[in-house]
Inverse folding.
């Protein structure tokens, strides 16, 4: 009887140890994202262009985005945009509940929009009688030139006594002498780098934004024939750079800004450059 009693005690003491379970480690995280669905490892676009970063990561407890320009974010979905041209490494780092991490990167190339030439496409200065209704004379031969002027917030810009807006010039073309509607197209090459600031480009009318202006001189006076300072919608913009993709087609990145009014048209032609 004694032997049997101690065997029972021994077996009952071991029973609790056999019932213990081990908590499994959380599954490993996997970092994954796209730019508006673009899965390429290298993406190129213009300054201030914006794209949604779509997070497809799994087994994630926390995350961190690093744009490669000292901008970091910890929200799941973020908006990607760069104000300066250059080459950047975009990084998503994700962590699971156990602290393990996974990293995914993409190479981002960002390009400036640079105006290379300006073309006066049409110059019918007496069309529709519009300018005469403003008190302008009936024009014959004139001296014509174009200017890109940039206004700033909090300042008011008006037409000066010399017929031009008093905003500072980012570009002023040479003056083409003795031209009329038969003289076009007139092309001016733009020296240096005339880089368009897209946020400023979109703020036209009133005291903000670029003024893409066409001026003519006649009988000692200067007249504004067209200006984007007069239009709330600004210039029309067209480009062959994207062709339906989020990524620049670097073999064909030309763009065009078209401005003007009745009888006059000026095109500002450029390219994407770093």
């Amino acid at each position: 009887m004694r032997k049997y009693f101690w065997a029972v005690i021994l077996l009952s003491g071991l029973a609790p140890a056999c019932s213990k379970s081990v908590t499994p480690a959380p599954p490993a995280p996997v970092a994954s994202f796209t730019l508006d669905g673009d899965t390429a490892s290298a993406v190129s676009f213009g300054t201030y262009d914006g794209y949604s970063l779509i997070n497809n990561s799994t087994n994630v407890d926390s995350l961190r985005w690093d744009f490669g320009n000292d901008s970091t974010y910890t929200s799941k979905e973020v908006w990607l945009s760069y104000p300066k041209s250059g080459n950047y490494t975009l990084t998503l780092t994700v962590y699971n509940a156990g602290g393990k991490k996974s990293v995914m990167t993409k190479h981002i190339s960002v390009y400036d929009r640079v105006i290379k030439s300006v073309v006066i496409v049409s110059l019918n200065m007496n069309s529709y009688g519009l300018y005469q209704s403003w008190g302008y004379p009936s024009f014959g031969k004139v001296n014509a030139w174009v200017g890109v002027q940039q206004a700033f917030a909090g300042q008011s810009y008006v037409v000066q006594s010399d017929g031009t807006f008093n905003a500072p010039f980012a570009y002023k073309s040479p003056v083409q002498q003795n031209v009329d509607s038969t003289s076009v197209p007139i092309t001016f090459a733009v020296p240096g780098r005339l880089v368009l600031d897209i946020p400023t480009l979109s703020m036209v009318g009133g005291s903000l934004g670029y003024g893409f202006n066409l001026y003519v001189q006649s009988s000692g006076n200067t007249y504004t024939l067209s200006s984007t300072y007069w239009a709330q919608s600004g210039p029309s913009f067209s480009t062959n750079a994207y062709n339906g993709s989020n990524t620049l087609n670097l073999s064909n990145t030309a763009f065009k800004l078209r401005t003007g009014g009745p009888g006059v048209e000026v095109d500002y032609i450029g390219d994407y450059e770093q």
Observations:
- The longest strand covers residues 101-123.
- Confidence is low (pLDDT under 50) at residues 4-15.
- The helical segments are 2-18, 130-133, 198-201.
- The CA atoms of residues 87 and 205 lie 34 Å apart.
